Amino acid sequence: MKVLPFTIPVPHGQSIIVQEEVLPHFYPHLHRHAEIQVTWIQQGEGTLLAGNSMHVFGSGDVYVLGANQPHLFKSSPEYFAEDSDKQVRAVSVFFNPNGQLSALFGLPEMVLVKSFFTKQQSGFKVPAEAAVAFWAMIQKIQYANGAAQLALLIDMLNAMSMLEGIEPLSSGNFPYSMTDPEGARIATVYNYIMHNYSSALTLDEVARLAHLTPNAFCRYFKKHTRTTFIAFVNKVRVNEACKLLVNGSLNNIADVAYSCGFSSITNFNYVFKAITGKSPRDYINEYSGAVKATR
Questions:
Q1: What is the pLDDT of residues 169-178, one digit of tens each?
Q2: HTH araC/xylS-type domain spans which residues (predicted)?
Q3: What is the pTM of this model?
């Protein structure tokens, strides 16, 4: 099996990198890079894994990912179907305040902006009500160059520094200082879980994947993710269940539970409420009420 790099190098020779993606699905492997990343999801849906937390993403969302923050935009399962004609579209802006832009971020006029991004190392999602404004800013940066592009980046970062009510994507103080071999091992485990959550995953099989004994793996996983293996698997499964519950693609709650890897409806109800704070039925009703209120 090919070992994929955990740290992805971004091309040198540019202080601002803009990347447009039009693909069958997003890059499906956990990775990191030294640059802060601002991504506008133009088309597509799935699960964002950022640090040790998961978030449902969809078209129109704008995310900011911190420097060296492990992350993965995992497209929904239907994007990987053999007969799928679906596509994802996204535009990302990369910049490194400690690289070629360090002199800019060292200016007195940039103190507040630098302080803001220093505090937001766990990344954040731009609030929905502000997202449209940032679509336009990202698009202007995409088609500009030279000094004009740099000026537009400063405008966008300044606007972000004034956002209110944002919450970190990753809970706790996630250890982003792990080495590449450590990160590659965690990435292998994450990727395996994200692609096999619907199966009956066992501690023994995942420990073997990481070339560790079960006890050693539990200690290793907890050290590098600040959560237990079982808790992480449950988060992945509940996250997928949330999407299935609201899109109505399955007949009933029991079907959702079993398709997401839960062995019983009782266990599903218990875990779902422990993670979301509400029962599956209440979750559906709350979502339905919110949709009606926006119409």
A1: 987 555 456 6
A2: 187-286
A3: 0.81
